[in-house]
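dumping this here so i dont lose it
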């Protein structure tokens, strides 16, 4: 550690601090002409696969990293048990898998916008009924919206415990990747959250 500290000091101490605040693009909200999003785009894949992806452009969510609302919603949408979207679609033989969420980095989330996507891997039969599949997804999201999060603090706490366990018992990663990840976190989170801000859930705020 002493050697590493010496190297870092030698290499970085001469870089001047210009005293300028971190650049922010928060004033450039709603970059997408969202009415143009209300369309169905068909893309012919190279490999034989049927996939339906529904994408929403949302206000920036990075300020809520201690709450992680999109992680909470993706947990509910991606649930595979009884009463879930995927369970229903599998009974219809329309879908094989369903994924939803936001990577919380880069293109998917920044100071201007956040993107939330739900992707359904369809069967051949599901492809014939993709409108109905989309309708089921929207019905489920509408149900979550109408019922609200107030009755689901138990679920939020369950997610919080799972993420905490994964954090505390995670395998050692490649040191270079770890340092790179920490450097990114330093641009996004408060100092006390550099190590944990991208993984742990800290606060339950149903209004968010």
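and the seq i came up w/
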């Amino acid at each position: 550690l002493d050697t590493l500290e010496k190297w870092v000091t030698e290499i970085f101490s001469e870089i001047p601090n210009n005293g300028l605040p971190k650049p922010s693009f928060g004033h450039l909200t709603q970059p997408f002409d969202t009415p143009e999003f209300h369309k169905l785009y068909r893309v012919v894949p190279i490999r034989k696969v049927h996939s339906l992806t529904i994408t929403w452009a949302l206000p920036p969510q990075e300020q809520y990293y201690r709450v992680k609302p999109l992680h909470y919603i993706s947990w509910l949408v991606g649930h595979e048990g009884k009463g879930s979207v995927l369970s229903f679609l599998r009974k219809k033989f329309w879908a094989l898998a369903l994924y939803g969420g936001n990577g919380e980095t880069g293109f998917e989330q920044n100071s201007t916008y956040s993107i939330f996507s739900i992707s359904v891997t369809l069967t051949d039969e599901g492809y014939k009924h993709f409108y109905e599949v989309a309708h089921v997804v929207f019905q489920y999201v509408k149900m979550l919206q109408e019922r609200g999060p107030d009755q689901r603090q138990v679920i939020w706490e369950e997610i919080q415990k799972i993420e905490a366990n994964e954090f505390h018992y995670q395998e050692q990663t490649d040191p270079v990747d770890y340092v790179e990840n920490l450097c990114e976190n330093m641009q996004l989170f408060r100092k006390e959250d550099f190590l944990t801000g991208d993984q742990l859930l800290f606060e339950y705020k149903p209004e968010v």
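Helices lie at 2-12, 69-77, 85-91, 124-128, 130-147, 153-168, 175-188.
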